[in-house]
Amino acid sequence: MVENILVVGAGRMGGGISRRLMKAGFRPYIFDIDYSKAKEVAGKKGRALKNFSDFKTEGRRVVWLMLPSGKVTEDYVNKSIEILSKGDVLIDGGNSKWSDSIKRADMVSKKGIYFVDAGVSGGLYGERDGYCVMVGGDKKGFSLIEKYLKAIAQKDAYLYCGDSGSGHFVKMIHNGIEYAIMQAYAEGFELIKSFDGLKTPTYKIAGLFNRGSIIRSWLLELVYDILKEDDNLNNIKAYIDDSGEGRWSIEYALLKAIPAETITDAAFRRFRSRMSEPFSEKLIAALRNKFGGHKVVKK
User: Fold this and answer.
1) Boundary (domain end) residue, out of 105, 133, 162
2) Burial track 39-56 (b if 16+ CB lie within 10 A, e otherwise)
3) What's the domain range around 239?
4) Both 19 and 36 in a single domain?
């Protein structure tokens, strides 16, 4: 049977996945609201579509969404239902909330379409080194797309995790762990930089930690690269965004009454980084002044 795959989204992740598919010998269709981006990613080996609805081919069709979570993904899930047929496969490879994926799987399966939720990790380096993919959904749907998973993932770096929602759930927890690890490294290196007796650049300590120590990791390799370029991070503002997985991890921890203090603190530190002169700290300073006469720094 002839199979055709359409990747929706030609950004960093969608573009990387498309190029890995092409490198493996597939000729994916590529759609993006910016047609020039789709054409650029497709090059000579892929096939750029001007309109999403033009994905009309013989044989089983696979639509792989690589879009921001929320309304955009929801819109394209609905659009996919309109153009796909019984036996086709719809993959949500974005960072959707696991509970949304359960609802979407139920909606899509009523049309006889297989729904697969795939959490994709690897970031900017995934295109070069291969991605790590956490897959949930119908087992038949998983088997139908396994050849594509092998093409984009590192060796043995994809896994069927279970029922619908499980792929995105595991990816959510993966990102929560990521929050906590990065927070630990950040705090540790801030302490190191504060030591008056330090006589070596901080990046060299990061490099040392990555040679045989218990805390060596790929993230620590990136810390080394970052600090080697700018040991004091003078050109970066202390503002940290979040894409939602940390919040959802905390929500789930509350739902199950499972302590997740480190992940929670890491997420809250991100919120704090976006605040200038937070009111809560001002109130604490004022209270200390009122009850104990402690010094308040005036503007």
Assistant:
1) 162
2) bebbeeebbbbeebeebe
3) 171-279
4) yes
Report the largest interatomic distance among the alpha carbons of the chain, rounded to a whole angstrom: 80
- The tally of CA atoms less than 13 A away on the side-chain side of residue 271 is 10
pLDDT at 277: 87
Cβ–Cβ under 8 Å, residues 159 and 133: yes
Q: Measuring CA to CA, which residue among 182, 138, 129, 136 is closest to residue 157?
A: 129
Report the predicted TM-score, pTM, of the whole model to 2 decimal places. 0.93
Question: Is-catalytic flag, 171?
Answer: yes
Active site residue 50: no
Catalytic residue among 40, 74, 178, 221: 178
For the ranges 4-8, 155-159, 274-278, which has the lowest average pLDDT?
274-278
Q: How many structural domains comprise the chain?
A: 2
Q: Is the pLDDT of residue 183 over 50?
A: yes
From the list 37, 97, 127, 171, the catalytic residue is 171
pLDDT of residue 85: 96
Return d(Cα 189, Cα 47) in angstroms, integer. 47
**DSSP state at residue 86:** T
pLDDT of res. 3: 64
* 224 pLDDT higher than 60: yes
| 144 shares its domain with 212 | no
